[in-house]
């Protein structure tokens, strides 16, 4: 299960990081294989220590320089 969550998370992270991505967080979560936006939020917060909103804001400012593991 952890392996699949990691695959889903990494796919979602690539989608979030895509400069031309206009999808909502819910759409990214579903397209990445999460059952719901809420389950994606929980995994994201656990892996990164920050919320998706803060992550998107941080990335859009051009401050994103490393991959979150």
What proportion strand?
A: under 5%
Counted beta strands? 0
CATH superfamily: Homeodomain-like
Helix count? Answer: 4
CATH topology: Arc Repressor Mutant, subunit A
Question: CATH top level?
Answer: Mainly Alpha
- Measured as a percent range, the helix fraction is 55-70%
Which stretches are poorly predicted, pLDDT < 50 over at least 5 residues?
Answer: none
Structural class: mainly alpha
- Note the main sheet: none
Q: Overall mean pLDDT score?
A: 83
Rg (CA only): 11 Å
Span of the ends, CA to CA: 17 Å
> Which term fits the overall shape?
globular
**Can you write the helix and strand succession as a string?**
HHHH
CATH architecture: Orthogonal Bundle
Number of domains: 1
Key attributes of the depicted protein:
69 residues, mainly alpha, Arc Repressor Mutant, subunit A, 4 helices, 0% strand, globular
Describe it for me?
This protein is mainly α. It has helices spanning 2-17, 25-31, 37-48, 52-60. Helix 1 (2-17) crosses helix 2. The two termini are 17 Å apart.
